[in-house]
Structure formats: C-alpha cells, structure tokens
Amino acid sequence: MNWIHIVSILGAAFAIAIGAIAPALAQGKAVAAAMDAIARQPEAANTVSRTLFVGLAMIETMAIYCLVIALLLLFANPFA
Amino acid sequence: MKIASPLESHILFTIGPVPISQPVVTTWGIMAVLTIGCWFLTRRLGLRPTRTQAALELVVDVTARQIRETMEAEPQPYLPLIGTLFIFLLVANWSSLLPGVEPPTAALETDAALALIVFGATLWFGVRALGARGYLRSFAQPSILLAPLNLVELFTRSFSLMVRLFGNVMSGVFMIGVVLSLAGLLVPIPLMALEMLTGAVQAYIFGALAMVFIGSAISETNPSPKAPNHEVSS
Fold first, then answer.
1. Least confident residue range of A21-30, B122-131, B224-233
2. In this model, does residue B119 exceed pLDDT 70?
3. Mean pLDDT of chain A
4. Strand, coil or helix: what is B202?
5. For labelling alongside B40, which of A32, A33, A75, B100 has CA 20 to 30 A away?
6. Which A positions 10-39 lie with beta carbon below 8 A of chain B?
7. Fold topology of A3-75
8. Which among B166, B168, B208 has CB closest to A54?
9. What is the pLDDT of residues B45-56, one digit of tens each?
C-alpha cells in the first residue's frame, strides 16, 4: 500500500463525509418549508409534494456526485 | 476482503466479438416480460372493463393526469414515452427482489442510455412544438447573454439525470452487498425494504424530470399556457 492508496482512501472518506453535510442541511430546509406550506394550505398538498420530490432529487444529486467521486477514487483510480 | 467494483459489469458470454454483460441480459428479460405481459393483458379489451383492464386503465389515467398537471399540455404525445420510462424503471429497480438478479439500472451504461433517450426526446418535442428556429431561439430566451448557460444546462441536466439514477440504485445494491458480507443472512432485509422505496421514488423522479425537461422545451417561448403558438406563427 503506497501513499497514493492512502491518500485515495482518505480522499474518498472525506468526500462523502463533507459532501453529505450541505445536502443534508438543504434537504432539511426544503422539507421544513414544504411542511410549512402544506400546514398553511392543505389543499395544495399535491402540488407542493410533487415539487418537493423533484427538488429533493435535485439536492440529493450533489451527495450522489460525491459518492461517485468516492467510488471512482476507490475502484477506478486513474493514478493508482 | 475484496469487494467487486460497482463501476464495471460482469460479462456473462460473448456473441461473436460482442461481449454480453449481465445488465444487458436483465434488461432484455425485463423488456420481454413487459412486452409479453402487455400483449397478454390487452388482448381482449372491452367497453365493460374486467378487473385487470380497470387496473391498467387506472395506471394510464394516473400517468396522463400527472403529465397534464406537470407539463400543462395534452398528455397524448408524451404518454407512451413517459409511461414506458416509469414502468420500465419501476420494474428494473424492483428486479433486485428476485434472487440472483441485479437491477440493470445499477450499471452506468443503462442509465446513460435512458438519459440519452430523454435528451433526444427533449430535442425532438422541442423542435416539433416550436420549429427548429423557434427552438433555437428559445435558448436565448430571457436574454442572449444566457444562451451559453442554457446550452450547457441542456447537457448537464441529462448528465445529472444519469448520475442520479445510477448513484441511488447502485449505492443501494452496494450497501446491501457490504452489509451481507459483514453480517448474516437476514440482516439486509430492512435495507432491501428501504431500497424498494428508493427504487419507486427514483422511477417517479426520473419520469417527473423527463416531463419537466420536455415541458420546458415545448413551452419556452409562450410563458402563459393560455396563449399557445403565438411565437410559432410570427
């Protein structure tokens, strides 16, 4: 195990660890706002939840990008 | 302990020079099941629906209503594409429930092909609704300065469509594999239940995003749905 392997593993772990923080906060804010909107206007629940799902998927993509980077580092590392 | 890379797929056999991998076989199996199943179920349709026909009509109706609400257009031209995408993705994501079957959407190539279909459909419906010139003009919509950004977005959103589906499904499969190799036989069952939920949500989101992309392509020049086609005639 040379130093490129060590750095790759650390990079993958940090990519997931740091990359999960911001999407988690963002998803929390989005869900809270949607709950607020549904509580104020229950008849709009359908539209709000549909938009919420699409928005959550958009936010989640950021975390998924980090996951893909981590997997690339671990399994398809171009330098190792 | 060595874990197999989720980025490369297992090759089953070769036909001539073409290697056939596991996701290809699974995809063709799902396509065969869906095609034969649809042919079998729609063989005798009547005005007085049987139970299965009523259930199928419910599925078609719900999909058409979703398209009408999301795209604010008549669902008829888009219903075959969106419905097929949704049903195929649902079956593909849930196919991991069969023992020994890996969902084909956990391979990057399948998702790339599906995202490419949505990309092509966006261009096709956009050009069909607005004409080639009108569609090109819609890229410079708020201002000509945003044209490069709109052009880049056309590609990045297809890319993110591909990576989103791949990442979600593959991470589920990967996690179940890791847990299975660490713990015993029955431990991954809650994870598999969670994976069913993720699969259904991702199938819905893929369909919904395809609707949003096509809807934005066909309506970019008429901001209000009440006044369609006023840009095409000019």
1. B224-233
2. yes
3. 89
4. helix
5. B100
6. none
7. F1FO ATP Synthase (1.20.20)
8. B208
9. 888 888 888 888
What value does the mean pLDDT take over residues A26-30? 95
Q: Which residues pair with B11 in a beta bridge?
A: B21
Can you tell me the ipTM of this complex?
A: 0.75
Cα separation, B123 vs B213, in Å, equals 10
Which segments of chain B are extended strands (E)? 11-15, 18-21
**Residue with token string 């966006």:** B122
Token pair 């959407």 is found at B105
* Per-domain boundaries in chain A: 3-75
Q: Which long-range contacts (CB under 8 A, 24 or more apart) does B16-21 make?
A: B21/B107
**Nearest CB to B5: which of A57, A60, A76?**
A76
Q: Which residue of A has its CA nearest to B4?
A: A75
Host H or E run for residue A18? helix A3-19
Per CB-CB distance under 8 Å, the chain A contacts of B157 are: none
Beta-bridge mates of residue B15 = B18
Give the closest-approach CA distance of B115 to chain A in angstroms. 15
Residues of A in contact with B202 (CB under 8 A): 57
pLDDT at B226: 45
**What value does the mean pLDDT take over residues B169-179?**
86
Which of A50, A64, A71 shows the shortest C-beta gap to B7?
A: A71
